[in-house]
Design goal:
alpha+beta
Length: 758
Amino acid sequence: MTTSTNLLSTEPAREQRSFRTETKDAELVVVGGGIAGTCAAITAAREGARVVLVQDRPVLGGNASSEVRLWVLGATAHMFNNNRWSREGGVIDEILVENLYRNPEGNAVVFDTVLLEKAVSEPNLTLLLNTAAIAVSKDGKSIRSVTAFCSQNSTMYELSAPVFCDASGDGVLGFLAGAAYRMGAEAKEEFGEQFAPDESFGRLLGQSIYFYSKDVGTPVRYVPPSFALDDITRIPRWRSFDTSIQGCRLWWIEYGGRLDTVHDTEEIKWELWRVVYGVWNHLKNSGEFPEAETLTLEWAGVIPGKRESRRFEGLYMLRQQDVVEQRPHDDAIASGGWSIDLHPADGVYSERDGSSHLHPRGVYGIPYRCLVSRDVPNLLLAGRLISVSHVAFGSTRVMATAGQVGQAAGMAAALCAQDGVLPAELLEPSRLRLLQRRLLRTGQHIPGMALDDPEDLIGRATLTASSELAVATLPDDGPVVPLDHSRAQLLPVGAGPVPTVSLLVDVSASTTLEVEIRTGNRPDDYTPDVVLATKTFELEPGERQRIEVAVDAAIDEPRFVFVALLQNEHVSVRTSTRRVTGLLSVRHTSTQEADPSLGRPRVEFWTPERRPGGHNLAVTLDRPLLAWPAAAVRNGHARPTAQPNAWVAAEDDTRPVLTARWERPQRIGRVELGFDTDFDHAMESVLWDHAEAAVPFCVRHYVVRAGGTVVAERTDNHQTRNTIVLDHPLDVDELSIEIVAANGDASAAVFELRCYPA
């Protein structure tokens, strides 16, 4: 019997004791609080499911947390590829946009707080930090409950639910439940994957530890620990180390691909520590870096950032051909777009390049079947452990992609809870369409798929606007940029003849300038290797020379065309400070040459520059572009695809208004708005500085009216998606949104206006 006073409690001796146990019943238990698990848990909770999120670390985020400090990235790939407007949508977009607003400097500790706030703000979500899943109990093939232990409060948890999601990275839940999994690289022959590595390259990707330095302004002495690597030349690329790079940019301090990346993680960590402290000793004490005198080692990772371990077998296994050929899948629920990025197993000790890339032409869809365990009926998979081959894993493993997959798993779990079905049953066509529709409503990007929502009352409305943008000219008020690279302006044109385009160039010496009109293979393909027409101009020295690109070419459906000025050392082109959704200039930066033996296609990379750079080219067209109509807000696309898909008002319309009218009153309880936070901007979460805290195209201040009555006003918006829930549903025959101000000097854009009864 325990006795106590005000200051003391005593417990008599016993033969043994057990930890305190708490039982929690939920509708979804998510194991793993990285980006994938966090997005899964938040999504399901918002859909009304009771969720328990189990995370074995003190913070959320996994490799994106302050413990590891890798930036969240996905299809945008630092904007180095042709995946225009491809940043992942939904919860991961919300997180990245909020982090940009609070943390444009990329502080990993601040990013921790953004993730934690998003999780604990959900009333249906119970978060268990420092809690590790250690056992499962089963009913037949299904999981009945998970046992987890929290080391900080000495508590055992018994967690039961009808559906479970494994987003733990190493797949601890699937492993304990007996689900089939793989580790290592499949042979080329199994799936016909030409990029599959051989034994010399290795079977697994390794792990990395990063470090940060800081200049304290006075000399700092460094005495390395005894375990630091004492021969830096053991690292073949040791001459690449200098004091200017740190953090994620040293991703290639990697090790462990020839070990068991689950059970040998501690051994791998110690080797990485040896390397990191040896590198710092080299920088501080070799005498080759005098600028290091005042530098101190501010931070080094205490756990390794893990790339690869177990991959679980689902109802389908994504493979190289799905990624490279951008194969369509009826059950697509997310998008990927990072290159197939494989690393040599020997990592930092390898003589090979740190990574080998195979870039597809653009984004691809990820099937729902890859998220459904084929062995454990109530187990969903999310994150890097989903059902993909080792080669396809090289693309799907990155965190923003994992976040979208996690969101899909969370939505699927919520639908399972609502209907009392198992994950595989959502493949029934009507349930699958509902899953995809619910995901699209939240902003998920599914390539080639538009939201078709019969519940949206805007589909029955007549839409009008105070004005619609027509672009005939982009004024030449920006900097003059040299054609040190070939440069192009993307223009969203309608079906019919290609407009005549005029540009202004400065010429330093007599030369011949070639201009091409290009496009991609499909309307939403931004690899411009289809040449529609070529024009040649003989130019003499002089400034502000107008060239008129009139071509005999036509297109059969709305799409983007590229007006490309080919590289010329004697020519510069005038640019414009005007920024408009769906208008973008790009440069030809490099080319991936075809290699049929690897299944690698030829891809020319035409990439934008980040703001405040990256100005549009100054152009004049013989007829205006009419690509920003009011009707775009209900076409089901919440980002540019083959067209901008946004309503933008005329430049001289200072208080633009978009109005929906119905023939008879409609009961409206909820309004959904989608704004432009520039899905082309990568928004790296940490270490990467961003020029702005809010995207200039995004609507900052707006007013929503029902008839003449103000029902909502927001003055400080920076987010992509706004949901307005009315205190009481209203019966209205007219609803309008007035745009008062944007977050910058760009034209404000609205992608979506949707209305629901409740």
